[in-house]
Design brief:
The complex is a heterodimer.
Chain A (H helix, E strand, L loop, with lengths): L17 H18 L7 E6 L1 H9 L10 H15 L8 E4 L4 E6 L4 H21 L1 H6 L5 H19 L1 H13 L17 H17 L3 H4 L13 H7 L7 H8 L5 H22 L1 H21 L5 H14 L15 H17 L3 H6 L9 H11 L2 H8 L2 H7 L2 E5 L5 E6 L6 H11 L2 H4 L2 E7 L7 E6 L8 H15 L3 E6 L6 E7 L7
Parallel strand pairs in A: 1-3, 7-8
Antiparallel strand pairs in A: 2-3, 4-5, 6-7, 8-9
Chain B lengths: L1 E4 L9 H10 L1 H14 L9 E6 L17 E5 L10 E3 L20 E6 L1 H9 L7 H7 L2 E11 L9 H14 L5 H18 L3 H19 L10 E10 L3 E8 L6 H21 L3 E8 L3 E4 L1 H6 L8 H15 L6 E8 L8 H15 E9 L4 H7 L5 H11 L4 E6 L2 H12 L12
Parallel strand pairs in B: 8-9, 8-11, 11-12, 12-13
Antiparallel strand pairs in B: 2-5, 6-7, 9-10
Helix pairs in contact in B: 6-7, 8-14, 10-11, 11-13
Classes of the chains: A alpha/beta, B alpha/beta.
Chain lengths: 514, 435
Amino acid sequence: MSVMERHHLLFQGADWDFGTIQRIHDAVEAIGVGEMGLDVYPNQIEVITAEQMLDAYASIGMPLFYKHWSFGKRFALHESSYRQGLMGLAYEIVINSNPCISYIMEENSATMQTLVIAHAAFGHNHFFKNNYLFRDWTDADGILDYLEFAKGYITRCEERYGHAAVERVLDAAHALMSHGVHRYPRKKRPDLRSEERREKERHLHLEQTFNDLWRTVPTKGAAAKPPLSDERRRALLELPQENLLYFLEKSAPRLQPWQREILRIVRQIAQYFYPQRQTKVMNEGCATYCHYRIMTRLHETGQISDGSFLEFLQSHTNVTRQPEFDDPHYGGINPYALGFGMMQDIERICTKPTAEDREWFPEIAGSGDVMAVLRDVWANYRDESFISQYLSPHLIRQWRMFHLVDDPDQPDLRIEAIHDERGYRRLRRSLSRHYDVGWSDPDIQVIDVDLAGDRRLILHHHVLNRTLLHKDDAQRVLQMVANLWGYAVVLKEVEPSTGAIFQEHVAHPHETLF
Amino acid sequence: MYIIDRRLNPGGKSLANRQRFLRRAKAQIQRAVRQTAGDRDITDLERGGEVTIPADGVREPSFRRSGEGGVHDHILPGNKRFIEGDTIDRPPGGGGGSSAGGDNGEGEDDFRFALTRDEFLDLFLDDLELPDLAKRRVSTVETQGMRRAGYTVTGSPVNLALLRSMRNALSRRIAMRRPKPEELLRLQEEIERLEKHEGPSEQLTALHQELEQLKLRTKRFPYIDPLDLRYRRFEPVSRPVAQAVMFCLMDVSGSMTEHMKDLAKRFYMLLYIFLTRRYKHVEIVFIRHTHEAKEVDEETFFNSPETGGTVVSSALREMQRIVEERYSPDSWNIYAAQASDGDNSPNDGSTSAALLRNVILPVCQYYAYLEVGSDSDRMQTGFINHKTSLWQTYETLQEQGANLAMRKVNHRREIYPVFRELFRRRDAEAGARVP
């Protein structure tokens, strides 16, 4: 670029100070927002130490969280492997909040800080702000206040009801966390800010309407109400219900208000993290693509030196490395590699399309405006739909993907599809299904409850591909469900097409627990 | 854009979580700690370190699909030679190529993590206690002592507070304007001088009068008055007996092999760690004996070699002497642990028994006898119930209801369990004990 800019190295060597960070941020912002058209929340960059990073790891990356032993366990685990040198720490953690908080490690060199800021403070930040899942499901403005409230609330509960009682509720809620999300958008946008107020209102209402006299009023015995029809009864309870935590919070007959509130807290947090699970590939792909573009531009404009650029390339290639399946290092598909590969592939399709691309992606092939296409993709897709839409034959060939089926009834494993004409679509479909959490999480629903009789709760697991639940775990979790519900719970593993029942788990509540 | 430096924020954010975790997994961690302790050198014990606990107790279960059964499919990169419809032999172990997409949740059989030194020792020594310290606190909760508590106007002459009394007298004398002796002296000299030089005069009479008056005043206001007396006041106060003394008795005669000494040494070292950690005011007395006993310091106790016969009563006498000299049973909880190979000179048995029964045991809270044997003894004990002379002596005592604990140890790995057994918290089995 211009000669003048060549003398504007942002930094020299590995050292940095806060002035450097500010300069880096401004330079990155000029490219990210100015040239690439990213749309981000205001940034808040926090410098932390390795120990603080371990702390953050333990609480799922959040800056504040309620207390629970499982976080201590995670901390102990990370700490021990970190101290032994088995594990490096992430260069950054970024939080989907407004302002967007990025933690950067003090050990990072100036180049790494540039990379981290480009990656987290602009890449992830843009994705958080624009992707439809995050917009629909999370409340970036309210999350930190909500966590503060949750932490305080749980601490108060511990003081009032004892550690053990709170721990039991939290254990149970955590076990059900993966089944504590609404998978379909509801009428209202989440609003975590009002949660604290609503809890107070609920509490106040209980206090105001409390009248001990009601206890003494003689009752006439059960009024002979006409029994509700099964349909009506289920509708009243919003059954079937796949959000187990929601169902228990609203309908479990024997829970105390504070126990319901704890279930609600865990449910809200599960819901907040739900989009992240569904957009791992896209989110990392977006961030990696952004940092790659931005770093390359910084180098082109002479703002970082050749040495820095090489240092960046080295860690970039480490991150986006995809070992092949027979490599001893193979550990599944690397979301950074797949995401970055697909983003670059889209860039190629937009700028240098082949005849094949024009056939497969007529609407974007050769459109020229890469960023417009990518911004649209980042805003409107999740991993599953993104892969099923944009995984190109070119990339499948490049990765030499193949589809392997392991059917226990067959003596051998079978290659179902490879990277050829017949295989592209099938490969793409199968891969996208792997990223569908609705498909990868077992489908468990509350089907019915016998309120008039023994109040037994009936859950169904709709078995997919004849894969049953992990038996021991299922029994443990079911026990917790029974404790929350207060009455017996039965879980049936059902083949949805035939209605055949593979297995039944039953759990009875421990009377003493709640 | 804001840049915030969080590095100076207080650390240890996860401490509360860690404590919750340790509490949660306490039973398992404790078991692991004990296991680890068995493998380690005792001097190593204080270091803390890594423990492994079964993941079962700290598992976080969730509804998830099991890795076995059912159809699994994988999309893998890096195809080299496969074409559609190929079949591959199932890899051994039934993993089915799922080394790739394998169930990550299955991997956690054991859970390894590091404990700090304090955490380690806390868990290691948890639920151990100097026996009967609790009981003693309940029965004779405290000893009575006297404490200074100001002054009183009555009391025995022994407690007369001289300084305070004299000060009172002085202030009274000043207040009452009691004439000072030099004042009288001066007046008398004046009178003498006048009498010598001038003979009777009016002035002389006046002076005489004044002197008379002063003398009268002096007599009326005594130099020290019963009113002035103050006595030191003492108040009875009960003092908790939290101090304990631990006597370590060891036979170092020729019959003790290195192996046995090593066992005894380990036992005492364990004891030493335990005592110095759990109780603030514990003194330890080391007595080693052959045919004669000597109080020695720790270093000599463990390390210096000695030869001679074995007379157990010599050690008991030495202990008796030291108790009488320095550790009054009123204010000290006395514990003794004796280690020996069981040998005793034949004519000493009854002496030792009598000493123990009449002198030592009555002042002791607890007396533990640890018999150390050689490795090979282990096999013998199975069919020949061989009892050493000392063991027989003590067994008789025990049968008579003496407060005496006895254990036999042959191997290093038994030390810790025996130690635990001897010093386990007693409240659980208080009823079972000999009263």
